Amino acid sequence: MRISVAGTRGIPARYGGFETFAEELAKRLVLRGHDVRVYCRGRAESPTYLGATLCDLPTLRHKYLDTVVHTFLSTLHLVFHPTDIALYCNAANAVFTWMPRMRGTKVVLNVDGLERNRKKWNWLGRAWYRMSERLSTWFPDVVVTDAMEIQRYYRDTYNQTSVMIPYGAEPSKLESDQALAAFGLEPESYFLYVSRLEPENNALLVRESFERVQSPMRLALIGDAPYASDYIAKVRATADPRVVAPGAVYGAGYAELQSHCFAYVHATEVGGTHPALIEAMGRRALILYLDTPENAEVAGGCGLPFTHANLTEVMRAAIAMPESQREDLRESAQRRVRERYSWDAVTDAYEQLFLGLAG
After folding, report:
1. Nearest residue to 295 (alpha-carbon basis) of 268, 333, 313
2. Which of these, 257, 279, 262, lies nearest to 180 by C-alpha position?
3. What letters, b where the CB count within 10 A reaches 16 and e where it falls short, cover 329-356?
4. What pTM value is reported for the model?
5. pLDDT in tens, the chain (359 residues)
6. Taking a C-beta distance cutoff of 8 angstroms, is the pair 224, 197 a contact?
7. Burial class of residue 322 (count of CB atoms within 10 Å of its CB; 0-12, 13-18, 19+)
8. Minimal CA–CA distance to 266: which of 225, 228, 304?
């Protein structure tokens, strides 16, 4: 099949979950013999990557226009260069998904979570996402949700049947740890937080909660965001020498940080299946997660839940916990990823969906 992926920043993955998803899915579909094209936002360094063709198009670098402008241009390209399947990411792009269908392309839309709940959006941004949720039930051929909670939301709110396919992760721990030295970290001696540094991901909550923990442990705040400079400045404004905030880390360094942390703190409260959470589970990290229905669905009892009010106490409890109990939680988390969230299983599900649509 000829398959195109639109609505992400493109690959190589250097931003967030959708980019990681696009990279992992594209390279596996290529290995299975499919012709894959990924649309990129003015950043492709070569015409191909991992066997996928990169289509580099411009955009407007603006908080509210970046995604929709680039996806509109990607859609125009799709109309004049049709493929068998167009996979769109992000519900905000639903408004464009009818256009490739007019040329005979089958369109799948991965809606992600309830993006309108993110604090970074003003009333116009929230209204756009609310409208896009409705358009998601009309314009594409198939809606994909990445968590049962999001699937339930679309069914109960819009009477929309969706295909639930989660994100994936590698169920393996890296033995190498060279990246840790660059941040002044030692194996098993730091809490790790990874996310875009935006308010609903609660990086500030994590930092302030950690600062009340009396321990030689350190905290590594990994991440960045293009339109959240004021919030990022607050997150990094600490006098605690135990806190390091180097920005975004990708590739092997990112995997090493997850593989050797004492515990991974997942504090995101908006979205479905968060890639960083299942990636940390796959690396055998001890998981501390904000107790939302979506996070609890992924963790499946293989971690320690916390609320906005008690994260400090849960961090202390993790430190005081017997090592054998921590190891049991790490092993069960990795086993859960191996059984439910492997990238090969995710690719199987998408490939079967695409084959069914393409006939």
Report:
1. 268
2. 257
3. bbebbbbbbbebbbbeebbebbbebbee
4. 0.83
5. 999 999 999 899 877 778 889 999 999 999 999 999 999 987 667 899 999 999 999 887 776 678 889 999 999 999 999 999 999 998 889 999 999 999 999 999 999 877 666 666 677 777 877 888 899 999 999 999 988 989 999 999 999 999 999 999 989 999 999 999 999 999 999 999 999 898 889 999 999 999 999 999 999 999 988 777 899 999 999 999 999 999 989 888 999 999 999 999 999 987 778 888 999 999 999 999 999 998 999 999 999 999 999 999 999 999 999 999 999 999 999 999 999 999 999 999 999 999 999 98
6. yes
7. exposed
8. 304
Q: Count Cβ atoms within 10 A of the Cβ of residue 162 and give its class: 0-12 exposed, 13-18 middle, 19 or more buried.
A: buried
Contact between 333 and 277 under an 8 Å Cβ cutoff? The reply is: no
Order of strands, edge to edge, in the sheet holding 52-57?
48-49, 52-57, 35-41, 2-6, 85-89, 106-110, 142-145, 163-164
- Per-residue H/E/C for 84-111: CEEEEECHHHHHHCHHHHCCCCEEEEEC
Residues 6+ apart with CB under 8 A from 308: 202, 205, 290
Dump strand ranges (E) for 249-326.
263-266, 287-290, 304-306
Distance CA 311, CA 191 (A): 12
SS3 310: coil
Q: Which position has the token pair 């996806």? A: 71
* Structure tokens that stand for 243 in this block: 């806190």
Q: How far apart are CA 118 and CA 229, in angstroms?
A: 16
Q: What token pair was written down for 356?
A: 């069914």
d(CA 174, CA 226) in angstroms, rounded, equals 29
Pick the closest to residue 96 from 127, 72, 120, 80 (CA basis): 72
In angstroms, rounded to a whole number, what is the distance separating the alpha carbons of residues 194 and 256? 13
